[in-house]
Amino acid sequence: MKEITELFSGLGTHIDPAVAIPVAVAVVAFVAIYFLLRKKESPPETVAEKQPEQSEAVSAEPEEADQAPDIAPAEVIEPAPESPAPQFAAPEPTEAEKEEIVAPPPDPIPAPLPTEVPEEPVPAEEVEPEAEEPEVEEEPEEDTVTAEQEVVAEEKEEEPEGDFFSRLSLGLSKTRRGILQNLEHVFSSGRVDDAAWDEFEEILIMSDMGVSTTAKLREKVSSAVSAGDSGDMEKIKTLLEKEILDILRGVESPVAELSAKPAVFMVAGVNGVGKTTSIGKIASRFTQDGKKVMVAAADTFRAAAVEQLGVWAERVGSDFLRGQTGADPSAVAYDAVKASVSRDIDLLIIDTAGRVHTKTGLMDELKKLRRVVARELEGAPHETLLVVDATTGQNAVEQARVFGEAIGITGIVLTKLDGTAKGGIIVAIAEQLGLPVKYIGVGEGLGDLREFDAEQFTKALFTSDKEALH
């Protein structure tokens, strides 16, 4: 250092050693880097062999400085006096590591993106349409099969009335057994007292004849039975059959004749009672008689009901009118009346939306629909039918009462009498409300819905299974 100072002083130039020394070191370092760069093979090997620990430490730093390779030499200049060897070896691993590090990233990054993204949304989109399509198609297909089979069956029937009586009797078999077998058990012992008649009432109530109707039947039958006839089960059965027949005859009423053109049938009922199916069967009966029938789907809030009614209309050969989903049912009824007049239709059957009889707002909407029909066609609707499910028991009586007060029910369509032990509900409706019973249904086929015959029904209720088959 003294020699360098004297050298500069001999030149006659005063240089501050504090500034000259770092400059000299920098020059020496620059020259050393230049020669090291020319010899690319030897320096890295010597550095890696002699100082493995330091090379690892140095190689860790360039990983962080991969994005700025040009700055590495500038950073090495400051710590040059302390450890020159690792500082000169630093720029070499940075260039080598760049080539190794840059290459692998593109492989892992794109690989997960295409595999994860398409797998999740594809099944989600496929599941939804597959679940929706069968829901709409399955119901009409079942109805279609039944319709075709029953139409063929009815064309081949030579004695439809006798065949229907057999099906009616078999359909009422559970109700019949529940009444007759239990009554025989009570009175076969020969005792006739208040306890026996209490059991008599209980048996009739269990068949859904209702409390008030059962009390009247007990009074009339018990007063006609003398003490000596207490053990005569046949006489008790005959008396009970006669009293029930008298009640049912009071509500026996034929369906209105199609004197007006078009005649309008308005059909109401809660969801699930078989309203749509009953409409299809009624339409079938009139088309077979040569009448031109139109069916209007005013149940605009249930797409499945509209589709099902459309299938029925197609199979029985009637015209079909539908409104847009969610449209005002009264507007659909209005269009149906206008269309039936222009097309010279004999019978227009309007399917109304299923209404819960306890909801005032829904019942008001049904009243509005009836007012629109009456306003557009004088005397319409000519029949206002309420479809009632026999299996609902005493709730069916309440439905008939509320609907009757709201829209003036002119007739009851009692469905699902087959296989139920509550067939006595028809007696309760007749005795308590006095509403005419127009149709009864004992099955799913077209021929299983018939006009109500009080004598036929009562006979089927008290006829054994063997007698019904013969």
Write up this protein.
The protein is of the alpha/beta class and 470 residues long. It contains 22 helices and eight strands. The protein has an eight-stranded mixed sheet with strand order 3-2-4-1-5-6-7-8, sandwiched between helices. Strand 5 (383-389), helix 19 (394-407) and strand 6 (411-415) form a beta-alpha-beta unit. The longest helix has 36 residues, at 121-156. It is elongated, with a radius of gyration of 48 Å. 34% of the residues are buried. The model is unreliable at 41-159 (pLDDT under 50).
Offer a few descriptive terms.
470 residues; eight-stranded mixed beta sheet; 22 helices; 61% helix; elongated
- Fraction of residues in helices? 55-70%
Structure annotation, total helices: 22
Largest sheet: 8 strands, mixed
Structural class call reads alpha/beta
Q: Order of strands side by side in the largest beta sheet?
A: 3-2-4-1-5-6-7-8
Shape: elongated
C-alpha-based Rg, rounded? 48 Å
Number of strands: 8
State the separation between the terminal residues, measured CA to CA. 138 Å
Q: Average pLDDT across residues?
A: 74
Poorly predicted regions are 41-159
Q: Spell out the helices and strands N to C.
A: HHHHHHHHHHHHHHEHEHEHEHEHEHEEHH
The fraction of residues in strands falls at 5-15%
Brief account:
This protein has 470 residues and is α/β, with parallel strands linked by helices.
Element layout with pairings:
Elements: H1 2-10, H2 17-38, H3 42-50, H4 52-64, H5 72-76, H6 84-89, H7 91-102, H8 112-119, H9 121-156, H10 160-171, H11 173-187, H12 194-206, H13 211-224, H14 233-249, E1 263-268, H15 275-288, E2 293-297, H16 303-316, E3 319-322, H17 329-342, E4 347-351, H18 360-376, E5 383-389, H19 394-407, E6 411-415, H20 425-433, E7 437-441, E8 449-451, H21 454-462, H22 465-469
